[in-house]
Every structure is written in C-alpha cells, then in structure tokens.
Design a protein that fits this description.
By secondary structure, the protein is an all-alpha fold. The chain has a domain of about 130 residues. About 70% of the residues lie in helices and about 0% in strands. The longest helix is centred in the N-terminal third of the chain and has 19 residues. The radius of gyration is 18 Å and the shape is globular. The two termini are about 30 Å apart. About 5% of the residues have low confidence.
Length: about 190
C-alpha cells in the first residue's frame, strides 16, 4: 500500500504539471514582468540568505578550499575587461575555478562549468560589475556550486538574483536569463 502511494504521488504531481493551464503560464509571465520592473528600478528580488556555518577557531585562521577558489574566481572575473576580447584561456580558467569551488559529493563536469564560464565572460566583456554586485554574484555562485543545504525555492531565488545582478548592470534580459539558466544547470548537476 505504501509503495502504491509512493508511486502515485509523483505520478499525480507530474500529471498536474503536464496539464497546467494557461493560468499558470500567465502567473509566471506576470512574475517575470514584475521582476524585470523591479530590476529596472534597482530593487533586488527577495532572496533567502544562506547562513554560513560559524567558523571554529581552527578554520578562522586558514581559508577553506571554497574560499580560496572564490578568491581566484573573483580575480579571473575582474581580469575580463569590457570591450576587450576574452581569450579562450580566460574562459578555461573561469571554468576550472567554478569546478574547484564545487566541493559537494557530486562533482561538476567541465562542460557545464564551461557553459557558465562562457556566459559570464560574454557579459563581463560588455560591462564589468561593481564590487558589491560582484561580491553578491560570488555569494550566489558559491551557493549554486555547493547546494547541499539549499531548498528548491531558495535555489530559484538565488538564480533569479543572479539574473537580476546582470539586468541591473544593463545586460539584455535574454542574456541575463542565459546566465541564470547556466547556473540552474550547475545546481541541477551538483545537488545531492
């Protein structure tokens, strides 16, 4: 009986998703428009912040591998200058930094990391991010790359925040969505 119920629940959820009516599509479109308007006005979307674990006395002295990778990632992203060509080596280094930052049980493939690296490189070649925006992006990327304790709704909010960071930075909506989609692909691959 329990097995039947366990199989019936996901089947019903899948069926409900498949037969979602126009009201669901309209609501999602309205939310996207609302988010775009908020971005244009400089209002960041509400994001549930992930509280990092309190560092112990031993970890306070030495940075963690994730922190070291984020420092390298920051340096590599800052090295991408607007209106200058991005070299394949720069893209490869960003992809390697993304892989190094992912410390969870599931490892990030180079192809998925390279997809996000290409999108980030293209955006930063148009216009660099301010220091606060870059810090916010790195915090979001750290959560996407290490999603062990992050709920699905929180991950959606983080990916929306990544999109909003670039839209606020005057990147075209479709390009900002590409970056957010690449981040979602990474989250799907690394989530345990």
């Amino acid at each position: 009986m329990k097995t039947t119920l366990a199989l019936l629940g996901p089947a019903l959820l899948l069926a409900a998703t498949a037969f979602a009516g126009p009201d669901v599509i309209i609501k999602q479109h309205a939310k996207d428009i609302r988010d775009q308007n908020n971005v244009r006005q400089g209002v960041a979307p509400p994001v549930a912040t992930v509280q990092p674990a309190r560092p112990s006395a031993t970890t306070a002295a030495a940075p963690t591998p994730v922190q070291q990778s984020l420092v390298r990632l920051r340096a590599d992203l800052v090295a991408i200058k607007p209106n200058a060509p991005v070299t394949p080596e720069q893209k490869q280094q960003v992809a390697r930094d993304l892989q190094a930052t992912a410390q969870g049980a599931k490892k990030l493939s180079y192809g998925t990391a390279a997809g996000l690296a290409n999108e980030l490189s293209a955006a930063l070649a148009q216009k660099s991010l301010s220091d606060p925006a870059l810090s916010r992006l790195l915090t979001d990327l750290a959560a996407v790359l290490n999603p062990a304790n992050i709920q699905t709704a929180q991950m959606q909010a983080i990916c929306s925040d990544i999109r909003a960071i670039f839209e606020t930075n005057s990147l075209a909506h479709k390009d900002a969505v590409k970056i957010a989609d690449a981040a979602k692909a990474i989250a799907a691959e690394t989530h345990p």
